[in-house]
Design brief:
This protein has 109 residues and is mostly helical. The chain is built from 4 helices and no strands. The radius of gyration is 17 Å and the shape is elongated.
Length: 109
């Protein structure tokens, strides 16, 4: 990752959330669960910005060719950084909704 400022800010926000959960629940187990869910969530949000995952969902199982890498580098000069793939959005929404629901159930008990 060339610029990891976004990763740093996400991890700082996660640390603040873990601190709040620890103060409110006074449970180390719940703090660890918050850490695990948070790190997996951050990895799932930041990971798709990389060139390999910034392709169509059906091409994730095949390696990138040299031509695809050159095309990715050429497209970086454009102003549009994020691409929206509907399959990716649907999968992420489902996975994160289930994870947040399980986490909230665990933390609130």
């Amino acid at each position: 990752m060339a610029n990891d400022a976004v990763l740093r800010s996400c991890l700082i926000c996660l640390a603040a959330i873990i601190l709040v959960v620890g103060i409110c629940t006074q449970s180390f187990k719940k703090m660890v669960a918050t850490y695990v869910v948070g790190v997996l969530g951050i990895a799932g949000v930041i990971l798709p910005d990389w060139a390999y995952f910034n392709r169509d969902f059906s091409r994730w199982t095949s390696p990138m060719t040299a031509e695809e890498r050159a095309a990715q580098i050429a497209q970086r000069s454009g102003s549009k950084r994020f691409r929206i793939y509907y399959m990716r959005v649907a999968i992420y929404t489902t996975v994160y909704a289930l994870a947040l629901n399980k986490w909230w159930t665990f933390v609130s008990n």
